[in-house]
């Protein structure tokens, strides 16, 4: 049965890489109907707002969204579009897997880590942000709740169990941030005891960064608060070749948004240069979320073979080809 999903092409290179992803989904036999919606600078130009009501309605109605990179204008009065979407739809879980692909410029060949980040609380909640008129002081408030901590930690353990993972590491800074990070760690310890089949570990965030760089193989699933998760997930992307090889999912109770996590790269927009791997990998995440595992595996295998063989790869992968050639190589394998 045909399923309708929302597609947000986004800004810069977004339309090109989203087009690549939808071609691949179609070739893999996913039988989706796409409802296209605007957000970001293109929406500001066409509708006078970054996230039109029609886009919010499409996301809510279809429950599943595939999204390209969005640009939030720099300057006062513009709130991050991604943060706004996460808060509006209660997308509390940010899921960022990274896997090594032979043929990339990565330093490691055996990385397989999922970072699960609380997506709606902490330093990114926007609470209490003030700056003195003379610019001499600024402050912001970090607030976490027991509900938020319980929800994200349990999500991590359930994902680990579902995917046959062996270990969940709670990443914190409770030695210094004794209130907020302390609450998170306390809750993580409580919930970890309920999952005797999964090893529970805890680690201070700065030590985690160091150990990820030295030996990423010791990590499996990381779960942490908003700010730390943002930093750690990008660090993990660097272990497998950069943000071009890292997808992301934002998951709530009623809907989910799957996205390329890199920027809109306006300097190469429309030049047929972008590597679409991040949004292709996000599409695979989306298919797995929908229990379409056969299609997900077929696309992953095709993408892996193209990168490993260097067949028509993009410049960031060591090749000399563009988005369309790279996409065509995947389509041929499918």
TrEMBL record:
GO MF annotations, alphabetized: isocitrate dehydrogenase (NAD+) activity; magnesium ion binding; NAD binding
Residues covered by the Isopropylmalate dehydrogenase-like domain: 4-330
PROSITE patterns: IDH_IMDH (PS00470)
A Pfam family annotated for this UniProt entry: Iso_dh
Annotated SUPFAM superfamilies: Isocitrate/Isopropylmalate dehydrogenase-like
TM ranges: none
Keywords: Oxidoreductase
Source organism superkingdom: Bacteria
Entry-linked SMART domains: Iso_dh
Enzyme class: oxidoreductase
GO biological process: isocitrate metabolic process; tricarboxylic acid cycle
Known EC number: 1.1.1.41
Protein family (similarity comment): Belongs to the isocitrate and isopropylmalate dehydrogenases family.
Protein name as annotated: Isocitrate dehydrogenase
Lineage: Bacteria, Pseudomonadati, Pseudomonadota, Gammaproteobacteria, Alteromonadales
């Amino acid at each position: 049965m045909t399923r309708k999903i929302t597609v947000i092409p986004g800004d810069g290179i977004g339309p090109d890489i989203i087009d690549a992803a939808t071609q691949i989904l179609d070739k893999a036999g996913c039988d989706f109907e796409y409802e296209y919606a605007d957000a970001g600078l293109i929406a500001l130009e066409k509708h006078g707002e970054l996230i039109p009501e029609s886009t919010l309605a499409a996301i809510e109605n279809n429950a599943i969204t595939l999204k390209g990179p969005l640009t939030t204008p720099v300057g006062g009065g513009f709130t991050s579009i991604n943060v706004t979407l996460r808060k509006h739809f209660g997308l509390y879980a940010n899921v960022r897997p990274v896997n090594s692909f032979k043929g990339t410029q990565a330093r490691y060949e055996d990385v397989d880590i999922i970072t699960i980040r609380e997506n709606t609380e902490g330093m990114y909640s926007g609470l209490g942000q003030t700056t003195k008129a003379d610019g001499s002081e600024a402050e912001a408030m970090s607030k976490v709740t027991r509900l938020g901590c319980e929800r994200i930690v349990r999500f991590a353990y359930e994902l680990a169990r579902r995917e046959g993972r062996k270990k969940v590491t709670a990443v914190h800074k409770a030695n210094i941030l004794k209130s907020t990070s302390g609450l998170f760690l306390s809750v993580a310890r409580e919930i970890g005891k309920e999952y005797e089949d999964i090893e529970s570990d805890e680690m201070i965030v700065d030590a985690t960064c160091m150990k990820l760089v030295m030996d990423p193989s010791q990590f499996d699933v990381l779960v942490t608060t908003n700010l730390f998760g943002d930093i750690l997930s990008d660090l993990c992307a660097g272990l497998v070749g950069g943000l071009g090889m890292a997808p992301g999912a934002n998951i709530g109770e009623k809907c989910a948004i799957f996205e390329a996590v890199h920027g809109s790269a306006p300097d190469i927009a429309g030049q047929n240069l972008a590597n679409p791997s991040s949004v292709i990998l996000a599409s695979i995440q989306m298919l797995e979320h929908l229990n379409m595992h056969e299609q997900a595996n077929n696309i992953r295998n095709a993408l892996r073979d193209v990168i490993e063989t260097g067949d028509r790869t993009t410049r960031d992968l060591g090749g000399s080809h563009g988005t369309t050639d790279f996409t065509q190589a995947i389509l041929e394998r499918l």
